[in-house]
Amino acid sequence: MDTTTRFWHGVLGATLVATIGNEQFRHDFFDVGHAATVAFFGYRGHQVNRFAKPAGVPDARAVQFDHVSLNLPDEAELLALRQRLLDDGCEVTEVIDHGLMRSIYFTDPNGIALEASWWANDPTGQALAPDAARYSDPDPVLAAREIMYYPQSG
Questions:
Q1: Rounded Cα gap, residues 95 and 120, in angstroms
Q2: C-alpha distances in angstroms, 64 versus 58, 109, 125?
Q3: pTM attached to this predicted model
Q4: For 21, what's the count of Cα atoms within 13 Å in the CB-facing half-sphere?
Q5: What is the mean pLDDT of the chain?
Q6: What is the CA radius of gyration of the chain?
Q7: Choice among 9-18, 26-35, 81-90 with the minimum mean pLDDT
Q8: Beta strand pairing status for 36-43 and 101-107?
Q9: First to last CA, the chain
Q10: Residues 29, 41 contacting (CB under 8 angstroms)
Q11: Which end of the chain has fewer CB atoms surrounding its CB within 10 Å, N or C?
């Protein structure tokens, strides 16, 4: 948890907002913006097997989750974070241009795959618009098609 706290608070800049715990575990919460937090458990006296799974790479060990993407306000912040990661000895990708966004990929000390991005054309907070370029999957899953083409009214 010490390494996790130093990385998430010190390198990523996610403010440590709460800690709880007892003799079996500790649980720390970090602010990742827009009233959202990411939380980590540390179990006292219990060893776990760690592994790292890069973002977007299939792995039979990690079926429930691929990676967390953290939003940054602009390209300067993305480049500054990339430099902080390099300065901290983290392996991090070059900036990847996805068209809609620019991203870097890295892992935290626990092996959790992370992405940090800034939206070159920010779709968050915009109304549903199925014909917009931001919906570029040519064959979305049924649930996404239902949401895009048959939205529920309030």
A1: 13
A2: 11, 20, 27
A3: 0.80
A4: 16
A5: 87
A6: 18
A7: 26-35
A8: unpaired
A9: 43
A10: no
A11: C
- The position carrying tokens 């760690």 is 50
Rounded distance between C-alpha atoms, residue 65 and residue 104, angstroms: 18
Strands 25-33 and 113-119: unpaired
Confidence band (pLDDT; 50, 70, 90) for 90? very high
Q: How far apart are CA 122 and CA 36, in angstroms?
A: 18
Q: Looking at this protein, which amino acid is placed at residue 31?
A: D
Q: Kindly state the percentage of the chain with pLDDT values over 70.
A: 94
User: How many residues are there in the chain?
Assistant: 154
Which tokens go with 23? 């003799």
Tokens found for residue 120? 């070159």
Dist CA 148 CA 154 (whole Å):
15
**pLDDT per position as a tens digit, 14-55:** 999 889 888 898 989 899 988 788 988 888 888 877 777 778
